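Q: I have 553 residues here and want to know how they pack in 3D. Can you give me a structure?
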Amino acid sequence: MTDEGSVSFVMYGGRSGTLLVTITRPQCSPHVREVKAHDAKPRSGLTIRQLEVLTLIAFGCTNHEVSERLGIRPKTVGAHVEDVFNRLGVGTRALAAAVALEQNLLFWGAVPTGTAFSSFRLSRLKGAWEHSSNSTARRPPTPPSSTTPSTRGASRISTASLRIASIVPAQFPGESSDMIQAATMAIERRNERNGIHGTPIEHCVIECDVFDTSSMSEALRRATNSGADAVLLGYNLDYPNTESFLRAAGDAEVPVIHASTSQLAIATVADNQDRLGNIFHICGGDELYGHGVDDFLRHLVSAQGSRLRGRRLAFIEAPTGMNVIHPYSQERIEDLGIQLSTIPRSDPLCNAEDRARIVESMKSCDPDIIVCASFLDHLLLVDVMRSLVDRPVKPLVFSFFTPSLAGFLEENADLAEGIVWSTQTGIYGDAFGKRFRQEFLRSNGRSPGYSQAGVQYDAVNMLIRSWLEAAHPRNYADVIAQMRDTPYRGVNGSYWLARAGQAPLSYPHESLDGSLAQAQLIYQVRNGANVVIQPDAYAQAQVDLTGTVLGLD
C-alpha cells in the first residue's frame, strides 16, 4: 500500500461503535503490512463528532476550516473545541494534538488528505488508500445476487450507533416516564429489526427545567455535544421566551422534534425557515383549542336544540403566552347565545392561593359550562372539580390536556367522571391506538397516558422512517427533507409537516382529509376510561350529559 511505518487511528465499527486500528510493518518483509483492530471506545469519552473536530485540530485546521470540512456552523465548532479541551484537560490546540496522538484519538473518517497535509504520515496513508479504492471503483461492478436485498445508501452508512436524545421535564416524572418508555419501545423494536441498515440506535435522556429557557437551551447543547443525531422534546413552558429557545434549537442543526402546543413556536419557525428549518412541531398550535370548544358547543346545540339550557360559560384562562380562545373563537361562542366570563391566570402551575382565587371567581359566575385551560396544572383542575362535588346538578366541565396525564384518572376517578376534555395530540381509539396501549402495558407494566407516550412513539418512528429513506442518516439536510415531505400515520394520527411552520394540519379545523391531518380529539371520562366523542369520524360514543345542567329537559 505504502512504505509508511506504524500508525494508529480510530474508525467506525465494533460493538461499542469504534475500532482502534494499528498498521505496522513487520521485520519479515518491507512490502507486508500487519493490521490489527479491536473494539475500543476512546478512554476520553469523546463523541464521534468531537473526535472529528479533534482530528482536524491535530492536523492544524482552524475553526473555520473545521466548519467547512464537517459542514457545521463555526459557532458549533467552537462549542465542540471547548468541550474537547475540557475532556482532555488541555488549554491549547497544540496540547490537544499531542494528547490525540498519545491516546490514539485520530479519527480515520476526518483525516484530511491532499498536498497541504502531505507531511503527515496518516494523511499519506489515507490518500494512498483512497487512490486504491477509486481505482477499484472504476472496475465493472459485480451484479448483485438476486437473494440479497438492496438498501438505498446502505453501503455509505457506518456501524457507529445513531443517537436519539430525549429532553424530558424534571418537574413531571409521570410525563417523563411516558416519554422515555415510549421512545425506548420504538427504538428497541427497530433495533430488533437490524436498526438502520445495520446501525443500532442508542437512546440518551437529559432532564431539564421546562419552565426555564436557559435550562432547556443547556439541555439542547448537552444533547448535541454528546453526539445526538436527533433531539426529542416534550414541551417548553417558558412561553414568553419561546423564540429564544427556538434559536437554541436551530443551532442544534440535527432534527429537533418538538411536541409543545404553541402557535407562537410554529409561526416563528415559519418566519425563519433558513435558520429554524430543522425544528418540527408534531401537534397543532394552542389557538386550535378554541375551535374545538366552539365545535363541541355547536354539536350540542345541533343535537339538543332548545333543550340545551346552559348559557353561562366560565373560562379559566391559559397561562401567559398561550392564546387559547382568541377573539374569533370567542365571537363564535357568543353567537350561540352563550355568555362568556373570563377568569385570568398567569402561571403554568398555580399555587394554592391562586387556585382558591380562581375557584371563587368561577363560583361567582354561576356557570352552566366551565372551560378550564389547566394543561399540566392537574391540581387546578382537581380543585375545580372538587368544588362541584356537593352539587346535585353540576356544570359541564371541559378541560384541555390534563386528563391525558398518566395516572390522572386512577388518582381522581370519582371526581373526573363525566368530564369532557380535548388534546391536540392524543392516542386514537382505533386499532393503531389500542395495539400501542397494549404493547406499552406489556412492556412497562402500566398503561400510558393519552398524549405524550403516543406522540413520542410516533416521533421516533417518523425519524426512523426518515433515516431509512435518506441517502445517509447523518446527512441531516436529507433526513430533514424526508421528515418534511413524507406523510406519516402513527398512533396519535396523521402527520404531514410540509407547511412553513413544519406542524401537522389539524382535523377538522385546517383540513378535512384525515389521511393528512391530525385530529383534535375530544374525550369524555366514562366509567373511569377516556372515550372519544368527537370528531364524528373518530367517535367511540356520543357525549353523555347526565347529571349536568345541559342534560336537563
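Q: Anything worth noting?
A: The two ends are 92 Å apart (CA to CA). Residues 263 and 285 are 4 Å apart (CA to CA).
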